[in-house]
Design a protein that fits this description.
- It comes from Stieleria varia.
- One of its GO terms (cellular component) is membrane.
- Its main location: membrane.
- This is Prenyltransferase.
- About 70% of the residues lie in helices and about 0% in strands.
- It is an all-alpha fold.
- The chain has a single domain, classed as Orthogonal Bundle (Farnesyl Diphosphate Synthase).
- The longest helix is centred in the first third of the chain and has 25 residues.
């Protein structure tokens, strides 16, 4: 990888993009039960990545002056990437993400009966909401107590974006099923906890933030563990989430929770950063479990395989 590409990879936090691919894929597979129609699937994946990368770039643009003083080695603060280039890329990707989200609900395909499936406006609405939440987090809300909740909202909307191209209006039924909302809020509350713990990662962490973050992480894991129980028709799952499903989710979350407990007693910045890294990358196995119950073992393994490039890149590039 050339030095210039390496700087851009750091700017967009390249290891983290695999968590977006994972949760957007899991949401789509949970609703559709397969990767078909592949055109809508690919389009919504690209939308999720575009919006995520936009958020990472705009984050550093809004923080440029502070980074020049506190984190001078970051790509923008060091001058490795010009603010003008980052501005074009960040706002361009934000617009592209919304356009791709809207397109994912308009691409024609045939349903199981061979009939033309209707368009849906939902991806466009969620894409716009996610873009607004990204700008609010990166800009006016980042230094306020609302920042972690806003980041959680971004992850909720990211998951819902993945599900949205296949959520078609059915008379007498909610547009977004309760269990999909349950999973989305599980991811959102979990990420809210990670973000709360990360607020002072460079200086060793604030005790209130560390404790609040731990509680939020635990609550997010609990929501993820029991969200399938909200399904009205669990028979639609390819693999029924039985009584051991909460145990599986708990085992995935356990190492992160243990790390989060340890930093309550030793808030060394490096240990907090390692906890954040583990927490962020754990989104992939969480998503893989949901891909598995929605579409089967093959899809679950395919999503879980995203852990490999994420971990390899995280060894070289920062995820926070």
């Amino acid at each position: 990888m050339s030095q210039r590409l390496l700087h851009w990879a750091q700017l967009v936090r390249l290891p983290n993009v695999f968590t977006v691919l994972a949760d957007v894929s899991a949401a789509f597979l949970l609703v559709a039960g397969t990767h078909q129609p592949v055109t809508r699937f690919a389009c919504v994946l690209l939308a999720g990545v575009s919006l995520y990368w936009a958020g990472m770039i705009l984050n550093d643009l809004f923080d440029l002056e502070r980074d020049r003083a506190q984190r001078p080695k970051r790509p923008l603060a060091s001058g490795a990437i010009s603010p003008q280039a980052a501005r074009i890329a960040g706002w361009g990707l934000l617009i592209l993400g919304v356009v791709l989200a809207a397109a994912s609900g308009k691409i024609p395909y045939e349903n199981a009966s061979g009939d033309a499936a209707p368009d849906t406006w939902l991806p466009a609405a969620i894409g716009c909401a996610l873009a607004i939440a990204i700008v609010l987090y990166d800009g006016p809300l980042k230094s306020t107590p609302f920042a972690p909740a806003t980041m959680g909202v971004c992850r909720v909307l990211s998951f819902l974006l993945g599900a949205s191209p296949m959520l078609l209006a059915v008379p007498g039924q909610p547009l977004i099923p309760k269990f999909i909302l349950g999973v989305a809020f599980g991811f959102g509350v979990y990420i809210m906890g990670i973000t709360t713990m990360a607020r002072d990662e460079a200086t060793g962490g604030n005790k209130i933030n560390l404790r609040t973050g731990l509680m939020s992480i635990v609550m997010g894991v609990v929501l993820l563990a029991f969200a399938p129980g909200l399904a009205r028709h669990p028979g639609a799952f390819k693999m029924f989430p039985g009584s051991l499903f909460p145990v599986l989710i708990g085992l995935i979350g356990f190492p992160v929770i243990i790390r989060a407990i340890r930093v309550q007693f030793d808030s060394d910045p490096l240990k907090i950063q390692n906890t954040i890294r583990a927490g962020v990358l754990s989104i992939i196995p969480f998503a893989a479990v949901y891909a598995m119950i929605g579409a089967g073992r093959f899809y679950g393994l395919a999503v879980f395989a995203l852990v490999i490039p994420a971990i390899l890149l995280a060894a070289r590039l920062r995820v926070t």
